Amino acid sequence: MVSRSERPRVAYRIVRNRYPILDGSGAARFGARWNSPGRQVIYAGESFAIAILERLVHLGNARIPANHVFGTIAVPSRVAVEEIAPQDVPDWDTDDLVASRRFGDAWFDQQRTAVLIVPSLVTRIDRNVLLNARHRDFPWITATPPVPVPWDRRLFAAER
User: Fold this and answer.
1) Boundaries of domain holding 119
2) Rounded to two decimals, what is the model's pTM?
3) Residue 108 maps to which CATH number?
4) pLDDT reported for residue 17
């Protein structure tokens, strides 16, 4: 479903401090759940909490990262947003990534919207926000300057 909101949407993105908040080069290089390599997609969370959880599942260690920053992304109301629910893409959550990448690649290649809201695999309730950096409306999307992530050491077993 494609929609426009009367008020701006907000998303949160956590990255290593050497990367800009609105940079999709990692997903373009390696691919991710909703895109194959070669497509510059920026992944963010609809809330700061899901952005934290999404980053945690990819950290692979038990130490508080010293080099992570976050930014708040603003999607103005003039930018169309496509939203999907888990049932809209059968098998989106499988490990082979076939269904989710097929859907995401079509969204990106067809330039349907600059923003795609998708379910989060981590919670299956929260949602992630994908940004198509090649879409004509992408320049309207902005991010705050990056600031250090306020990690809670209780999230890291080795730091207790």
Assistant:
1) 2-159
2) 0.92
3) 3.90.175
4) 95
- Domain total in the chain: 1
Is there a contact between 17 and 146 (Cβ–Cβ < 8 Å)? Answer: yes
Is pLDDT above 90 for 154?
no
Contacts of residue 66, defined as CB under 8 A and 6 or more positions apart, other chains included, come to none
Give the pLDDT band (50/70/90) at residue 7: low
8 Å CB contact between 52 and 14: yes
Pairwise CA distance, residues 160 & 158, whole Å = 6
- In sequence order, the β-bridge partners of residue 9 are 75
Reported as a pLDDT band with limits 50, 70 and 90, residue 39 is very high
Contacts of 52-56 spanning 24+ positions with Cβ under 8 A = 52/14, 52/149, 52/155, 53/120, 53/122, 53/123, 53/126, 54/14, 54/120, 54/122, 54/128, 55/14, 55/149, 56/155
